Amino acid sequence: MKRCFNFTMAAVLAAAMLATGCGGNGSGTTDVTASGQEQQGTQGTAQAEGQQETGQVTGQQGTVRDDVIVVMGPTSEPEAGFDPAYGWGAGEHVHEPLIQSTLTVTTTDLKIGYDLATSMEASDDGLTWTVTIRDDVSFTDGEKLTAGDVAFTYNTLRDTSSVNDFTMLKEAQAVNDTTVEFHMNRPYSIWPYTMAIVGIVPEHAYGTGYGEHPVGSGRYMLKQWDKGQQVILEANPDYYGEAPIMKKVTILFMEEDAAYAAVMSGQADLAYTAASYSDQTLPGYELLAFETVDNRGFNLPAVPDEGKTEDGISIGNDFTSDVQVRRAINLAIDRNEMIDNVLSGYGSPAYSVCDKMPWYNDAAQVGYDAVKAADILDKAGWVIGGDGIREKDGVRASMTLMYPASDSVRQALAADTANQLKEVGIEVKTEGVGWDTAYDRAQAEPLMWGWGAHTPMELYNIYHTMKESGLAEYSPYANETVDRYMDAALASSDLEQSYELWKKAQWDGNTGITQDGDIPWIWLVNIDHLYWARENLKVADQKLHPHGHGWSIVNNVDQWSWE
Length: 563
Known about the structure:
alpha+beta, D-Maltodextrin-Binding Protein, domain 2, Dipeptide-binding Protein, domain 3
């Protein structure tokens, strides 16, 4: 017996992928790779026909332009090309793949809609998903897209993906040309979101080099890729959906200063920027700010110092392992002050990794109260010493707060945190680090992270314990009740019920990860994504942007227009 899914409910949002938030690509003003090395991009030189420094938007013979030039950061360029198996559409820059079609899509109000799919059903036990697809879709090489291509795509990603986690998928099978079945190893209630980010590739044309010369069935085709400089997309003339308004999309990859210069010179129609530039005035351009769930916060190791592992990694922290310390720190942070002074007003307070999402538990929200924070520390036995720093049982109220060395925003947030916590008798030393050591060091010391996605899996990735260690992956923490709620949410046969379980994992009235619970992470701010845009460029309504100041902006570039 199969059960039809209700897509009029709140957002069906979850990703079957590795943690999207780590600190690398797209996680700050200047991004770094996993090795901590700054990526360098070469300034592109493309310029649309008819575009002048004065900001004109007419093309040949006075016709309205149907092209747009967008500037992204250099780490937005897909290193492995436009292959879903290597992160195109997923990873840290979760977005619609544009070149390939997907089974489902997320709408602007974060609900699920259909792309290739025409219907979907899940079995009562949650172990089989049946999806029917359109029969009028062809790849750009003229070959018809069938359920066989869908099954091939998912089985390939299950076996080879370097980004997505497909351990829940046993096998995808094409029942006929328009029906595919997904047989699961375990129930996975949030599968519809996975289907919204996986681009379908052609079985007959997939192989080595596909990422550089992708064949798809999406709104756009890859016309040109000058590595380190630009990508040019052109509208697919045989697209089965509504024809794109923007026929040509040029993406330039530039560092932040070069992006600003491109706007000043009239070279770009829309370019990413940071709050540090927000006080500038550029004739012919306006500053657009888009809400995000792109948050910044730091972990607090929740177990005492356990010494070093066999690999030489230190685990735990005798100061932050005191839950009263963690609760005091959460109250001692004035998030609005950070937004005003670090983000120039472009942001919102963050209290969890899932603010504004359907599964957010408002029990996470706290108000700034330094007096109460100090009182908590007093009652917990943390006594202020002669230098103003507290101490208890020979342990100094001191910690090192790391941040990615090339990320100016996280550096400023770390410094602000240090200043604020000093007021309640906590010493915070800040240190810029590379990602080659940061992950390991975060097992014993706080690290300023960037997270946020349209998915409750973000909660799972951060807080759920691993079988191997019995602790969470990114910072030592464990709570069996929290684990059970999240496991039950994934196994749920009803999405709305799963949202309630995700909420209970945060706080169920007795335990959880919020202020009155274990509070193993401190969330500070959600950073608005800022862009300079030509005044007469009409950017379509945006979804809430996830972590990563990148491809999300062009999810619906086909609907943009010139006024």
